[in-house]
Every structure is written in C-alpha cells, then in structure tokens.
C-alpha cells in the first residue's frame, strides 16, 4: 500500500492510500492504452482488489482495527480505481496517436491478481491501430502475474510505476492526480456545469446555423444579383465621391484648425501681455491710491492744524488782558493803585511796558503809522517819543520822593496823554475799516470815558479807573486786529 497526497488546487493535501495492484502498468505502455482498454483493465484490477478484500476481511475480521480497514478503502476513498481514473480520463483525455502493437513486440499481462504488466517494444509502427491493442490485450497468451513475480519489484519501483501512471493521467486529463473523494466530487461537478453550458451554447449555434441554411435556400436569381451588384457598384462610386469630398473637407478643416491654433497662440500671447501690463498698472494704480490717500491725510491734518492755529489767538495768549477787582490787568500785572491797595511801581511799570508793546504790535500788524508820536516799547522803561522834536516822555514811575519828582509827574502825564492820542488815532482807523467797530470808551485828548488819565492833580481812584478803561479799549483793538490778520491769511 503506497501513500500519496491529494493534488487538488484547493490545497487539500489529504493522504491517499494507493493499492500495489497499479504499479505493474509500466510507463512504456501508457501511450498505447485507449480509454476502453484502460477501463477494462482497471475493472479487472478492481474486481481482483474487491476479491482480496473479501478474503482478508473473512480471515482477519477480529484482528485488524477499524481504522486500518478504513485506510484500505480503494484507490480514492470510497471510489474504486476504475471509477476515479476512468472518469477523469474520459473528461480530459486528448486525442493521441496509438501505435499498433504486435504480439511479438509487446507483452501485456493481466490476470486474477489485477496487475497489468506491459513490456516495452523495441519499435512501434507509425500508424496507430486500436484493434491491434485490443487483440493483444484479449490474447489468450496474456496471463496474470503471480505473487512471486510481484515480489521481484522493489518498493521504489512500485512507487515510480504508480507515480508515472498518475503523471500520464494528469497529462491526458489536464487535472493533477491523484485526487481524494471530496475533490473528485467537486471537480466532477464543475466539469459537468461546464459541459451543460457548452451544450447550451452548441444548441444555440446549431439553431443559428439552421436559420442560416434556411435563409441560404431562398437565393436570388443571377439577373437580380447582377442588378444588385450594379446598384452596389453605383452606391460604391457615390460613397467614394462622398469620401473624396470628405477628405477634401478634412484637409480644409485641418488648414483652418492650424490657422485657428496659430491665432489662438497669438491671442494667448496678447492676453498674457495684457494681463502683465494690467497687473503692472494695477500695482502703479494702487501705489498712486496709497500715495494719494497719504497726501490727503496729510492735507487733512494740515488743514485741521491750520484751523486750530487760526482759531488760536496768539496775541490774546501773549497779551492777556483781564481784571482783578478794581484794577485792570495785563499778563497779571495790575495797572493803577489805590490808597487801600498800594501797588508797587515796578508792577505798574511792567504793566505799562506790556501795554506799550501791545499797541506797537497792533499798529505794526495793521500797517498803521502814528502822526505825532512814536512808541518805544522798552519793558518797564517804555517811553513815548514826539516825532517833531524827539522829546521823550516816560511811561514808568518811582516811589522815590525828591524835588525832581515834580518834574516827573509832568513828563509821566504827558506820556500817558500821548499814549491815549495814539490809541485814538488807531481806533479811528479801525472804525474806518469796519463801520461796525467802535471803541467802548471814547477818547478825548487826555480823557477816556470822561476820566482823566493824568496822575497829577487827580486822585488815585479816578486814575486807576481810567487805566482800566484804557486796557478795555486795548482789548477791543486786539480782537479787531486778530480778525484782520486771519482774513489776510485766509485761502
């Protein structure tokens, strides 16, 4: 008993026990066996194998275990060698040329033991003859080999002979052998399905062939065929003419396509150049917009700053005229004195210096020139100068008591009267420029608002009040001059 592995493509790898009865069919005789011959000889092997199994089961029924009996179930499990081998040999065998075998060239032995013994011939005729094989196999000279002849073969030779038989069957059937029972059933089922499909296709082809044969019976006569041929030739000529026209149109279309392609390339280049210039223009335009916005913002800031500067009266900030009780003040310097509030002369002199400088500045900004006197702003030592003879009149005083103080009163009073004269002249000039302008306190020679500005032969209360009126008129002149300056600088 030889062991082989199932060769199914599903990787079954099941162990198969092969009987020794198959080893004697040598490889040299396999090409000479036809399907029927192989079936008959395998049937003899099967019968002999079953007879031996019956004898062995009778003699050793109580000695062998059940597992061993299962291992000897024929060649492919429950399938007998004839059923397994011949079924696949019938399904996949290719047509082979079988040489004729003479009795003197090949000896095929088969007997009751089921072993086929084939002796190779020295040479085979070129033409196959299946009948000669049958005659040889059925010859009375063929006798089954004895058990003694079987013993002459080694185990290696038996395995080689059985393997050669399976290779021969695998080549003929295109299915790898040996196979187990399950794989045999599976492959047999698949082959039967293929056979069924092929039979259906064959029947479909036969039906179509019958229809073709029926249609071929109703053939036209020769005259009708000639007319059809002429018509087809004319149709062919027309189609050739149409084909020629189509070829000409195709050439024209190719030329147009070439022209269109060239034009498209030109347009693409122009478009590329356009977008490049457009991008450059957009960049320049954006830069211009940014620059314009920057300039606009600068202009707006400058305009706001100019408006703020215009609204700012620097003269009002520089010469701040206000009051402190009974005293008029200029830059916080009190102008005048009272018995109850004696103001130091240094403060009074500083106030007169600020008043002189303010009147001088107003006249200069208004391009006005005085007729009789000239202002000399010199801080706390400011003076008035008479234009005709150059006489100076002081606008400052002192608390020093001396003989010369009597002469100082006269020069100080004349200086204050000259200051009022200059204020009266520039007030008249302002009224001439603007009819709506008018000084709140009228000036008449050395009086302002009916109050004398002279200190000599006057009380301090009247003098202090007249000085307060003087600063009030200076305030009005300052506002008027500021308006005129803004108008002259307006755009």
What report would you give on this structure?
This protein is mainly alpha-helical. Helices cover 58% and strands 9% of the residues. It is built from 12 helices and 13 strands. The protein has helices spanning 35-59, 66-71, 81-92, 130-137, 147-151, 155-173, 181-217, 222-311, 314-318, 345-365, 405-433, 460-488; strands at residues 2-5, 15-18, 107-110, 116-119, 321-324, 327-330, 333-335, 373-376, 383-386, 392-394, 443-444, 447-448, 451-452. It has a 3-stranded antiparallel sheet with strand order 5-6-7. Strand 6 and strand 7 form a beta hairpin.
Topology:
Blueprint (H helix, E strand, L loop, with lengths): L1 E4 L9 E4 L16 H25 L6 H6 L9 H12 L14 E4 L5 E4 L10 H8 L9 H5 L3 H19 L7 H37 L4 H90 L2 H5 L2 E4 L2 E4 L2 E3 L9 H21 L7 E4 L6 E4 L5 E3 L10 H29 L9 E2 L2 E2 L2 E2 L7 H29 L3
Antiparallel strand pairs: 1-2, 3-4, 5-6, 6-7, 8-9, 9-10, 11-12, 12-13
Helix pairs in contact: 1-3, 3-6, 10-12, 11-12
Task: Pick out its properties.
491 residues, mainly alpha, three-stranded antiparallel sheet, elongated
The largest sheet is: 3 strands, antiparallel
**Structural class, from secondary structure content?**
mainly alpha
Q: Looking across the biggest beta sheet, what order are the strands in? A: 5-6-7
Shape: elongated
What Rg, in angstroms, do the CA atoms define? Answer: 74 Å
Order of helices and strands: EEHHHEEHHHHHHEEEHEEEHEEEH
How many beta-strand elements?
A: 13
Percent strand: 5-15%
Count of runs of 4 or more consecutive helical residues: 12
Instruction: Please estimate the helix content.
Output: 55-70%
Oligomer: single chain
- Low-confidence segments, given as residue ranges, are 61-151
